Amino acid sequence: MKPVSAPQLVDDFRTSRLSILHWSWATGSGETRHQLAENLATILTPIVLKHLPPSFQVNQTTEDVLKWIGERSDESDVYLICDEQSNTLIGLMFLVNGSEPEAEVKVHIGYLLSEAAWGQGYASELIKGLLLEAQKKVPMTLIGGVAKGNGASAHILRKHGFLLDQNLSNDDTEVFVATLAQR
User: Fold this and answer.
1) Fold of 13-180
2) What are the residue ranges spanned by the domains of the chain?
3) Tens digits of per-residue pLDDT, 47-106?
4) 1 Cβ partners below 8 Å, 6+ apart?
């Protein structure tokens, strides 16, 4: 069953160094989509994709990345992560509405950053900004699955208040949850 995807689960937002923009404007047909594929081909390296599900693995050819863009659009609400200063694409954020209609909103989150962006605090800044933006849409539960070998991502989620949920976790994946409520 295809996940329920609601465009713009959160609005576009900015942090001190990042712009997070829904990618719908860049995934239409034509030159913009082709340019996005070329940019992503340099980001979607095997090491960047290492801890992501098999469906996220892709060859770094423009043709394969164009197909990958379509697949991600079909299953997720995808946002471009851009460095504000250089206006450069440095990664992607994925949101999937895992809720049944009329139920509390449960959003599965994921992200990837280019190797060049690692170790600079961008992931932490992204999650902090997402929590602030999602607070506008409460009540909402954010759920992040992290491959057991990806300690850096687990640390970032814990740092920002996500709690490990043993019931949702399994041998391969730790699942962290943040429940946002009215203040």
Assistant:
1) Aminopeptidase (3.40.630)
2) 13-180
3) 999 988 888 999 888 899 999 999 998 888 999 999 999 999 999 999 998 866 666 789
4) none
